[in-house]
Amino acid sequence: MNRSDIITRSMELITSIYSDSIKSNLDSFSDDCIWIGPYSKQILFSKKKVVDLLDSRNRDYKFDILDMDSIPVAISQNCIEIILIYHLNISYPDGTSSVILQRAQLVWVKKHLRDQNGADRSDFVVRSCHLSNEMNFENHGTTPAAEVSDADKNDERPRMTPSSGKRIYLKGPKSSTIYLSENDVIRLKSNGSHTTVFTVKGEFTSSESINDIVGKYPDIFVRCHISHAVNLNYIAEVKRFRVTLKDGTQVNIPEKRYTVIRDDIQAKMRSLK
User: Fold this and answer.
1) Per residue in 143-197, pLDDT tens?
2) Each residue of 43-79: pLDDT tens digit?
3) Are residues 214 and 241 located together in one domain of the fold?
Protein backbone atom coordinates (compact mmCIF):
# COMPACT_ATOMS: atom_id res chain seq x y z
CA MET A 1 0.00 0.00 0.00
CA ASN A 2 1.48 3.36 -1.02
CA ARG A 3 1.24 6.83 0.47
CA SER A 4 -1.66 7.87 -1.75
CA ASP A 5 -3.70 4.88 -0.55
CA ILE A 6 -3.02 5.75 3.09
CA ILE A 7 -4.04 9.38 2.52
CA THR A 8 -7.31 8.26 0.92
CA ARG A 9 -7.98 5.81 3.77
CA SER A 10 -7.24 8.56 6.31
CA MET A 11 -9.74 10.90 4.67
CA GLU A 12 -12.37 8.17 4.46
CA LEU A 13 -11.80 7.25 8.11
CA ILE A 14 -12.25 10.79 9.45
CA THR A 15 -15.23 11.36 7.16
CA SER A 16 -16.87 8.16 8.41
CA ILE A 17 -16.44 9.26 12.04
CA TYR A 18 -18.54 12.37 11.40
CA SER A 19 -20.99 10.82 8.95
CA ASP A 20 -21.95 8.09 11.43
CA SER A 21 -20.60 5.31 9.20
CA ILE A 22 -17.52 4.44 11.27
CA LYS A 23 -18.48 0.75 11.49
CA SER A 24 -17.42 0.27 7.88
CA ASN A 25 -13.92 1.48 8.79
CA LEU A 26 -13.35 -0.16 12.17
CA ASP A 27 -10.78 -2.54 10.70
CA SER A 28 -8.58 0.49 10.08
CA PHE A 29 -7.97 0.83 13.83
CA SER A 30 -5.43 -1.29 15.64
CA ASP A 31 -6.88 -3.18 18.63
CA ASP A 32 -4.42 -1.32 20.86
CA CYS A 33 -4.87 2.08 19.21
CA ILE A 34 -4.54 5.36 21.07
CA TRP A 35 -7.30 7.94 20.63
CA ILE A 36 -6.78 11.54 21.77
CA GLY A 37 -9.97 13.50 21.23
CA PRO A 38 -10.53 17.27 21.38
CA TYR A 39 -12.61 17.04 24.57
CA SER A 40 -11.54 16.51 28.18
CA LYS A 41 -10.97 12.89 29.26
CA GLN A 42 -10.90 11.70 25.64
CA ILE A 43 -7.63 9.80 25.91
CA LEU A 44 -8.42 6.17 25.17
CA PHE A 45 -6.18 3.13 24.76
CA SER A 46 -8.11 0.54 22.78
CA LYS A 47 -10.33 0.21 19.72
CA LYS A 48 -13.19 -1.03 21.90
CA LYS A 49 -13.14 2.17 23.97
CA VAL A 50 -13.06 4.29 20.80
CA VAL A 51 -16.09 2.42 19.45
CA ASP A 52 -17.92 2.87 22.76
CA LEU A 53 -17.17 6.61 22.68
CA LEU A 54 -18.47 7.06 19.14
CA ASP A 55 -21.55 4.94 19.82
CA SER A 56 -22.42 7.11 22.81
CA ARG A 57 -22.27 10.47 21.08
CA ASN A 58 -25.29 12.74 20.93
CA ARG A 59 -27.09 12.14 17.61
CA ASP A 60 -28.94 15.47 17.92
CA TYR A 61 -25.83 17.17 16.55
CA LYS A 62 -24.99 16.74 12.86
CA PHE A 63 -21.49 17.09 11.42
CA ASP A 64 -20.38 17.83 7.84
CA ILE A 65 -16.81 18.11 6.61
CA LEU A 66 -16.67 21.06 4.21
CA ASP A 67 -13.19 20.56 2.80
CA MET A 68 -10.05 18.63 3.63
CA ASP A 69 -6.33 18.90 2.94
CA SER A 70 -3.62 16.37 3.77
CA ILE A 71 0.02 16.64 4.75
CA PRO A 72 2.18 13.49 4.80
CA VAL A 73 4.60 14.09 7.67
CA ALA A 74 6.69 10.96 8.10
CA ILE A 75 6.96 8.03 5.74
CA SER A 76 8.92 4.82 6.19
CA GLN A 77 8.52 1.20 5.19
CA ASN A 78 6.52 0.36 8.32
CA CYS A 79 5.05 3.69 9.46
CA ILE A 80 3.20 6.55 7.76
CA GLU A 81 2.06 9.68 9.60
CA ILE A 82 -0.65 11.85 8.03
CA ILE A 83 -2.09 15.19 9.14
CA LEU A 84 -5.52 16.22 7.85
CA ILE A 85 -6.85 19.78 8.08
CA TYR A 86 -10.54 20.46 7.49
CA HIS A 87 -13.45 22.71 8.33
CA LEU A 88 -16.21 21.01 10.29
CA ASN A 89 -19.78 22.30 10.10
CA ILE A 90 -21.82 21.57 13.24
CA SER A 91 -25.61 21.71 13.02
CA TYR A 92 -27.45 22.09 16.33
CA PRO A 93 -30.94 20.87 17.27
CA ASP A 94 -32.30 24.45 17.28
CA GLY A 95 -31.44 24.87 13.58
CA THR A 96 -28.30 27.00 14.03
CA SER A 97 -24.81 25.95 12.99
CA SER A 98 -21.16 26.90 13.36
CA VAL A 99 -17.87 26.02 11.69
CA ILE A 100 -14.55 25.11 13.29
CA LEU A 101 -11.13 24.26 11.89
CA GLN A 102 -10.03 20.84 13.04
CA ARG A 103 -6.80 18.87 12.60
CA ALA A 104 -6.39 15.09 12.69
CA GLN A 105 -3.04 13.37 13.11
CA LEU A 106 -3.05 9.68 12.21
CA VAL A 107 -0.12 7.32 12.62
CA TRP A 108 -0.41 4.18 10.49
CA VAL A 109 1.84 1.22 11.26
CA LYS A 110 2.28 -2.04 9.37
CA LYS A 111 1.12 -5.04 11.34
CA HIS A 112 0.86 -8.75 10.70
CA LEU A 113 -2.80 -9.70 10.80
CA ARG A 114 -4.94 -12.78 10.30
CA ASP A 115 -7.97 -12.65 8.03
CA GLN A 116 -11.32 -14.38 8.55
CA ASN A 117 -10.02 -17.53 6.87
CA GLY A 118 -7.05 -17.73 9.22
CA ALA A 119 -4.49 -16.68 6.60
CA ASP A 120 -1.66 -14.38 7.61
CA ARG A 121 -1.37 -11.00 5.93
CA SER A 122 0.18 -7.60 6.59
CA ASP A 123 -1.57 -4.26 6.38
CA PHE A 124 -1.36 -0.72 7.71
CA VAL A 125 -3.61 0.10 10.67
CA VAL A 126 -4.08 3.24 12.76
CA ARG A 127 -1.93 3.07 15.89
CA SER A 128 -2.90 6.56 17.08
CA CYS A 129 -5.48 9.20 16.16
CA HIS A 130 -5.25 12.70 17.61
CA LEU A 131 -8.00 15.26 16.92
CA SER A 132 -7.45 18.92 17.82
CA ASN A 133 -9.31 22.16 17.20
CA GLU A 134 -8.25 25.65 16.28
CA MET A 135 -8.28 27.60 19.54
CA ASN A 136 -10.71 30.49 19.73
CA PHE A 137 -9.19 32.90 22.25
CA GLU A 138 -12.31 35.07 22.29
CA ASN A 139 -14.84 32.40 23.26
CA HIS A 140 -12.48 29.67 24.54
CA GLY A 141 -14.63 27.09 22.78
CA THR A 142 -13.83 23.52 21.85
CA THR A 143 -15.82 21.04 19.87
CA PRO A 144 -15.42 17.32 20.58
CA ALA A 145 -16.19 14.41 18.31
CA ALA A 146 -18.68 13.03 20.83
CA GLU A 147 -20.06 16.18 22.47
CA VAL A 148 -20.54 19.89 21.75
CA SER A 149 -20.10 22.50 24.45
CA ASP A 150 -22.26 25.60 24.96
CA ALA A 151 -19.21 27.75 24.19
CA ASP A 152 -19.10 26.40 20.64
CA LYS A 153 -22.82 26.77 20.12
CA ASN A 154 -22.48 30.47 20.91
CA ASP A 155 -19.41 30.84 18.69
CA GLU A 156 -19.90 33.94 16.52
CA ARG A 157 -17.60 32.90 13.68
CA PRO A 158 -19.06 32.97 10.15
CA ARG A 159 -21.53 30.20 9.35
CA MET A 160 -21.19 28.05 6.24
CA THR A 161 -23.50 25.72 4.37
CA PRO A 162 -22.04 22.24 3.83
CA SER A 163 -21.15 21.48 0.22
CA SER A 164 -23.32 18.82 -1.33
CA GLY A 165 -22.60 16.14 -3.86
CA LYS A 166 -20.06 13.39 -4.39
CA ARG A 167 -16.70 13.68 -2.65
CA ILE A 168 -13.59 13.80 -4.82
CA TYR A 169 -9.85 13.66 -4.12
CA LEU A 170 -7.29 15.71 -6.04
CA LYS A 171 -3.53 15.80 -5.59
CA GLY A 172 -2.49 19.28 -4.44
CA PRO A 173 0.87 21.04 -4.08
CA LYS A 174 3.72 19.67 -1.95
CA SER A 175 2.44 16.08 -1.96
CA SER A 176 -0.89 17.07 -0.37
CA THR A 177 -4.28 15.64 -1.26
CA ILE A 178 -7.30 17.95 -1.49
CA TYR A 179 -10.70 16.62 -0.48
CA LEU A 180 -13.66 18.44 -2.06
CA SER A 181 -17.30 18.13 -2.93
CA GLU A 182 -18.00 17.80 -6.64
CA ASN A 183 -19.99 21.05 -6.39
CA ASP A 184 -16.92 22.92 -5.10
CA VAL A 185 -15.13 22.62 -8.46
CA ILE A 186 -16.28 24.79 -11.35
CA ARG A 187 -13.75 23.98 -14.06
CA LEU A 188 -10.25 22.73 -14.86
CA LYS A 189 -7.50 24.24 -16.99
CA SER A 190 -4.49 22.30 -18.20
CA ASN A 191 -1.12 23.66 -17.12
CA GLY A 192 1.35 21.29 -18.72
CA SER A 193 1.51 18.14 -16.58
CA HIS A 194 -0.42 19.98 -13.86
CA THR A 195 -3.94 21.38 -13.70
CA THR A 196 -5.35 24.65 -12.40
CA VAL A 197 -8.52 23.85 -10.45
CA PHE A 198 -11.09 26.66 -10.22
CA THR A 199 -13.38 26.28 -7.20
CA VAL A 200 -16.12 28.33 -5.59
CA LYS A 201 -13.52 29.54 -3.05
CA GLY A 202 -10.63 30.31 -5.41
CA GLU A 203 -8.12 28.26 -7.33
CA PHE A 204 -5.18 25.95 -6.71
CA THR A 205 -2.77 23.86 -8.77
CA SER A 206 -3.13 20.10 -8.79
CA SER A 207 -0.13 17.93 -9.61
CA GLU A 208 -2.46 15.68 -11.61
CA SER A 209 -2.94 16.18 -15.33
CA ILE A 210 -6.32 17.22 -16.67
CA ASN A 211 -6.52 13.82 -18.40
CA ASP A 212 -6.10 12.02 -15.08
CA ILE A 213 -8.73 14.12 -13.29
CA VAL A 214 -11.35 13.81 -16.02
CA GLY A 215 -10.53 10.11 -16.29
CA LYS A 216 -11.20 9.61 -12.57
CA TYR A 217 -14.45 11.58 -12.58
CA PRO A 218 -16.04 11.30 -16.06
CA ASP A 219 -19.51 11.68 -14.53
CA ILE A 220 -18.56 15.12 -13.13
CA PHE A 221 -16.32 16.74 -15.74
CA VAL A 222 -16.57 17.00 -19.50
CA ARG A 223 -13.63 17.87 -21.74
CA CYS A 224 -14.69 20.67 -24.08
CA HIS A 225 -11.19 21.72 -25.23
CA ILE A 226 -7.70 20.21 -25.17
CA SER A 227 -6.87 22.59 -22.29
CA HIS A 228 -10.24 22.85 -20.54
CA ALA A 229 -12.81 20.72 -18.75
CA VAL A 230 -15.93 21.93 -16.99
CA ASN A 231 -18.17 20.64 -14.22
CA LEU A 232 -21.46 19.51 -15.74
CA ASN A 233 -23.35 21.03 -12.80
CA TYR A 234 -22.09 24.51 -13.71
CA ILE A 235 -22.99 24.51 -17.40
CA ALA A 236 -25.54 27.22 -18.16
CA GLU A 237 -25.61 27.08 -21.94
CA VAL A 238 -23.98 25.39 -24.94
CA LYS A 239 -24.01 27.46 -28.09
CA ARG A 240 -22.09 27.22 -31.28
CA PHE A 241 -18.41 26.83 -30.48
CA ARG A 242 -18.56 27.70 -26.78
CA VAL A 243 -19.79 26.65 -23.34
CA THR A 244 -21.08 29.29 -20.93
CA LEU A 245 -20.89 28.49 -17.22
CA LYS A 246 -23.17 29.74 -14.46
CA ASP A 247 -20.44 32.10 -13.19
CA GLY A 248 -20.26 33.75 -16.63
CA THR A 249 -17.06 32.03 -17.77
CA GLN A 250 -17.00 31.08 -21.44
CA VAL A 251 -14.89 28.21 -22.77
CA ASN A 252 -14.36 27.80 -26.50
CA ILE A 253 -15.11 24.49 -28.24
CA PRO A 254 -12.98 23.57 -31.28
CA GLU A 255 -15.05 24.00 -34.43
CA LYS A 256 -14.17 20.57 -35.84
CA ARG A 257 -15.24 18.81 -32.64
CA TYR A 258 -18.21 20.96 -31.73
CA THR A 259 -20.95 18.46 -32.64
CA VAL A 260 -19.26 15.55 -30.84
CA ILE A 261 -18.59 17.60 -27.70
CA ARG A 262 -22.07 19.17 -27.71
CA ASP A 263 -23.71 15.74 -27.98
CA ASP A 264 -21.48 14.39 -25.19
CA ILE A 265 -22.41 17.30 -22.90
CA GLN A 266 -26.12 16.91 -23.62
CA ALA A 267 -26.04 13.15 -22.99
CA LYS A 268 -24.22 13.56 -19.67
CA MET A 269 -26.48 16.37 -18.54
CA ARG A 270 -29.57 14.24 -19.28
CA SER A 271 -28.11 11.52 -17.07
CA LEU A 272 -27.91 13.99 -14.17
CA LYS A 273 -31.65 14.60 -14.19
Assistant:
1) 444 444 444 444 333 333 345 567 788 888 776 778 788 888 999 999 989 999 9
2) 999 999 998 888 888 788 889 888 888 888 878 889 9
3) yes
Q: What is the CATH number of the domain that holds 116?
A: 3.10.450.50
- HSE on the CB side for 249, CA within 13 Å? 16
Whether residues 117 and 223 fall in one domain: no
Query: In the predicted model, is pLDDT for residue 35 greater than 60?
Result: yes
- Cα angle 15-21-25, degrees, rounded to a multiple of 5: 80
Q: Are residues 135 and 21 in the same domain?
A: yes
CA distances from 198 to 174, 225, 241 (A): 18, 16, 22
Boundaries of domain holding 209: 172-272
Q: What is the pTM of this model?
A: 0.64
